[in-house]
Amino acid sequence: MAPTLFDHGAKPGDLIEIFRGTYEHWAVYIGGNEVVHLIPPSDDSSPFGSLLMLLDSSRAQVRRQKIWEVVGGHRFEINNLLDHKYEPRDRHVIVREACRMVSEEQPYNAVTHNCEHFVTEIRYGKSESRQVNRAAAIGGAAAAGVGIVALGAALLATFLKDDDDDE
Question: Of the residues 37, 84, 92, 113, which is catalytic?
């Protein structure tokens, strides 16, 4: 049987990854079926409205909410994604730090300080975002691909020009 919101298995200090279709949202589980997360203000709950809000916001608020209010109907999982890379802080320190930040307004930037940066900073003391790293890698690969195509086209044009000059 799949876990429900009530038997999710999260322990205080665990990171919760919420799959919202166009992006992943992140929160820190603090116990009592509550999470702390960083969220820009929003009036639009549609998937694209939420994505536009994330890309357009420069400020966000740290909120403490019931896990099911944050997850809604979306799929989620416990994902302590950097435990293999960094030593997590003690669980009580993670929870204390997360709770201390509740109601704070913080700068928000989809690339340099998003909800994933926020939770990894709390758990590991290191701010990282795999979503941003993946997007950068995809963008870099796309740019390299465009460069290779342009180089190939230039070489082909040179070859055809040389072939025309020979005739």
Answer: 37
Q: Annotated catalytic residue: which of 8, 113, 115, 117? A: 115
Indicate yes or no: pTM above 0.90.
Answer: no
Measured CA to CA, the distance from residue 98 to residue 46 in angstroms comes to 27
pLDDT digits (tens, 9 = 90+) for 54-74: 555 689 999 999 999 999 999
pLDDT digits (tens, 9 = 90+) for 79-121: 999 999 999 999 999 999 999 999 999 999 888 899 999 999 9
Q: Is 25 a catalytic residue?
A: yes
Amino acid at 32: G
Residue 37 annotated among the catalytic residues of the structure: yes
